[in-house]
Records
---
Amino acid sequence: MRLRGVSATTLDDVVIASNVSKSQLYWHFEDKHALVGAVIEFVGDRTIAAERARLGSVKTFAGLRRWRDTLVETNGPQGGRYGCPLGSLANEVADQDSIARQKLHDLFSAWQGLFEDLLRRFQKAGVIPCQADVSQLAIGLLAAVQGGYLLAQASRDVAPLASAIDMTLAHLRLLGSEAHL
């Protein structure tokens, strides 16, 4: 599904790729809808766990820059080809499956929460102003990441991902410098 997309992947493709029989597949998944739900949970849990590990200890702009560099470097060898695993799934299923859309919404909310936690640490450390709206800043950071992933996927180049995140980090730095005036 990651390589071909949800709609282009058949259950026969899954049987072949997983080297199981159709009866084994149907033992675990009633239909493709159930399989897609499981894929969303698996990919979502993995994505959020990785982001939690990378973002959980960030307390400085240098740490945030390292997070950005890792994200860009991880996607560099593929030239941004596959985009964000969650964003790609959302693009494919959001209009067709309300349960999947809600799961993806919850995963994006969890990711936003990780950014909010990071920004609260920045506030506590005096890196950004205490009155800064961390919820709005976190939405902006998540949107920059997702937009950057999408543009990188379309261009087969990670430069748009890097640029989108850089613009958001520049905004955060500007907020931080204003806090010290």
---
Amino acid sequence: MIGQVAQKKIYLFVTLLLYAVSIIVMGYFLPRTESLLQLVFYALAFTSYLIICHFSKSGLLSIKSGIAWSMILRMLLLFAVPVLSDDFYRFIFDGHLIKMGLSPYMLLPDEAVQEANLIKEGYWETLIQGMNSRNYYSIYPPLHQVFFWMAAWGGSNLFANILILRLVILIFEVLNFFFLYKIIKAWGLSAYRLWLYTFNPLVILELTGNLHFEGLVLTGLLSVLYFFGQKRLIHSAMGWIWGVGVKLTPLMLGPLMVFSWGKEDRQKFLWVAVILIFIAFWPLLLQENLLHFWQSFRLYQSKFEFNASIYYLIRWLSGFFVDYNPIAYVGPILNGLAFAIILSIGLFRKPENGKEMADAMGWIYLCFLLLQTVVHPWYIIPAFGVSVLTQNRIFLWWTGLVFLSYSAYSDEFRVNENQIVILLEYGALAGFFFWNYLKRFKSRNLEFKI
């Protein structure tokens, strides 16, 4: 008879194969309009993920084998064209503009084609028609654009451009594995925390699959936690500004970052951060780059809405009193409220070690995301990556629930969100919060435990 350990290893191997099949089917064979089938296979992948993490608690996964399998699952998507998101078309387009010496902040895509005397056909037509942002200037920070420029060196070949972006993301995923492992080891945590991140299907599909750069943001945040625990001020500042340089979102961690240091160190941290921000963002100071960047940013904040929670509730309630969409007013108000909450956390929650810093980061991200008008699935990844180091598991379950938002793409010609699906996503998330957090709330230290 097969021993119990051998039996578990067989079950683990079969689960990994099912997971791999799910990733392959979603990455190569299902367009995003097949939202029901996408959801079925994602549910299979997420269930496999939970089973793998459960088996890992028994020590069936060594560090080497776990990392190897995590990379294999990512490498399965190496030759796939992203199907769940079309953002990569703009990434590659911006990169080609920079390679030609043109600023993606100065010209709209159609204007850029005319300015460069490019014939609007073939490869350029593919990029123009594929992108969802041809009517506004690029919103991606200069550091982010560096990787787009790197992708452009693949020439007028979509597959080569995609492959370069994917390899960059995979390199930073390895760095994320490294930082997580080092932090887990330093904090005396179980290796189980590492597998919570490395095997998560949302992480694999959105980073390696859909070419989103939140993984690079996470690299910065993890380096902050690692170096903050060692009280290495300059390295912590570099990690934070790296995240800000790739995506602006980590700016919201500013109050927490600054006030976590003593008075003298605080001033030094500020000076280092300001210098690094200037280095990262100086291209925006040229010509009208900053003005156009700000216009696109404001447009994004005041016009677009997707998979929101509190905002959708307010919009629904406002429908009883006004006959227009109040996003232009409600969006800035919610951002103001988010800023007030984040500032309060930064002022009053002063972490003394990396664990407390990670916990505070998680609550800041949660408040921020719940008050946004747009919450794409990949927005959750930096918060989730940090949260695996804490007792906070709300982001883990959100990585499972947020995939429901892709049902909005079942119509090929327009985004059509089903409010029942949105209610299901956030209702389940709220249910988890109240069931798994509030009943274990400890008033003596104001922390949630599970």
---
Amino acid sequence: MPTTAPKIVIVGGGPVGMTVAHALTKAGIDFVLLESRPSIVMAAGASLVMSQIGLRALSQFGVLPAIEKASTPLSICKRFDHLGRTIGDTKLFSYLHEKYTNSMIRVPSSNYCIANTTHSHGCASRVITRRDLMQVLFDALPVEASSKLLPNKKVSSLHKTDDGVVVKCTDGTSYEGALVIGADGAYSAVRKHMATMGGQQDAQGQGGNDEDLPYLTTYRCFWMRFPRLPGIAPGDMTESHGPQATTQYFASEDSAVVAVYERLPQPTRRPPRRYSDEDEAAFVARWGHLPLADNPSYRNAEGIRVLTLGEAYAHRIQTGFINLEEGVVADWSRGGRAVLVGDAAHKFTPSTGAGCNNGIVDVVVLVNKLHKIFATAAAVGNSSGSVKNNASVVPEEELAAAFREYQEVRFDTVTLGCGLSGRATGTASWATPWAKFMDLYVLSVDLVLRYFLRWAAAKTALTPVFDFIEGEDTVVGKYPWVHKIPMPQA
């Protein structure tokens, strides 16, 4: 008898894993999602910056209005040195908005167009808490799809079968499917176990040893959420730059979040350590003088009226202390039965806000290919009278080829993005004298910034969308997208 197990097992229920769930739902492909945490939606992690490429893909799920409501648009970023002295503002997000804003928006049920240059059409980059983004994505799933999201499911092993894969969990449960998608982060269990799926160790030992880690850690990050204190306006964004450490700070309607990136004495590939409350307190004692925002209510040691990290720490609501891994995994799949997306395949420092957005685009490219393969397999299965959910109708060789093509499409883009993100962190933390010079005297120049963005816009315009989800493209501006969202059929 053919199996009726879910066709695809998703491991990892973060924003990228939830994007997979939405995409498979739209594609009509059955799935189950396994999340190791006790809840799918919970207050974990700092805020995320959603850029045009991520927002455009998510807009195809109909969630853009809800994301806009739960997030804050980004504009001008004020920059300080460690003493609180201004070192010039940067208009990166303003220029991005200018390039991607809707210059013409078609009015529903009308042949007329209206000019528009506001944030209300989802074209500005936006900052949103991880929990709020997860809530938006969870709420938008159909009830049947949301019932397939299973928390408290920690993966213990993967086993290849004749027609698919079995994912076993530490609680004794197991889940069968044609393939497994690892969306489970930098220390991916899928990546760890997929090398031994067939019962043999990969020649390079990929994933077979906890010490054999693909990412390099050069920075660690302390992040904190605290109330929006008097004198702080929603939408405020600042950075403090200087030797060994840099901050990024965002304020929303009811709270603010800051991340401090500190350069380690030596880069390491060792597994991450768990930082204690004492480690956190020592970190804040060392960097508590870093300025976060202009504020007449506070004055630092230099007599400059700014809110400092230490003063904000006294009002903390939530904190975290983690290592920041960087790199791109060499192989993103194992045969035709396991494939990686997001942080499981590539990890960026958070400085450019590119990590989550690139993970979403991974899903776009991968699920476009899966949609074609599964649609063909379903047609063949139905014509032969077999059960629709039969995993054996999906040829492993065809899946393996699709996974290789997916990696080829994405590899150079994420490698470039990872390098740019790491250099941005190094420049802001004055990793070298040259980095300090570039930060203070070159990268803050509007002409240089505009030149860089023209180059980036040409590459960004190539970003794909889900080619099987019809709808209106609401993120349209001066630089047209090469890949158009399919228009609804008449």
---
Amino acid sequence: MIIPAYNEEAGIAETLRALVHAPDFGPDIEVIVAANGCRDRTADVARGFGVKVVEIEKASKTAAINAAEEVATGWPRIYLDADIALAPQAVRALGEALATPGVHAAVPRPVVDVDHSSWLVRAYYDVNAQLPVFRGRLFGRGVIAISRSVRERFDEFPDIIADDLFLDAVVAADAKREVDVPVRVPAPRSANDLVNRLARAREGNEQFQAWARAEGEPQQLLADPVKGSSSTSWLRDVVLPAPRLWPAAVCYVAMTALAARRRRSPNWTPRAGWGRPESGAPEPAGEVR
């Protein structure tokens, strides 16, 4: 398991405690924290849990993953966001899914944690969580498990923001599985945090689409290419069939528009919206339901 971490001193302990301090944690689960561009004690805190730690100067999630890959030995390979608490039972459930013939990627069932979020953020996710673009895909979970054969299809992760879109695209649609293990994905606390996250996601989406259009070898990797998002899906597929969501739709449109505007700001960088939300880490996922 590889956990890229950028300035996660305040929260990495919660994530690691849920994993390595669990009674059923064992040597079959390899944990590598890839601290990248950190200016805090993320690496020291991680070492305190007895896990492998890789440090690089560059603040880049994909560069951190590539550095960790050089020392990783365990299979299947699991990539976990540093703000996601995952129990050993969930890790093994993902591994068991990949043991099924024909399955080469597995993800848990996402549950967006809005317990500490403002009403604007809650309203946004009332719509976002139901978008059909997430169905049958690997992104938006904070954790992805892939088989060794998938990992051997490419040399390293490309230098793009959306590593989850990349993994989703290189695995064929019928080779993906969602395991019925809930994982809590922490939502931003404030509307401002949400706008930053959405701006970064929009940048990542466009960056991925540009990479996917490139000629040559990358195109050969795309077993299930992700199409550009529909600008009307939120209305056609989510809001119109459920009139109760009309008030939430106003918030959804407003947050989306503000994110597009912020991304055009000359002072904005993709690093905005990166890192652990103020709401903190959720309870660890792991109970199979």
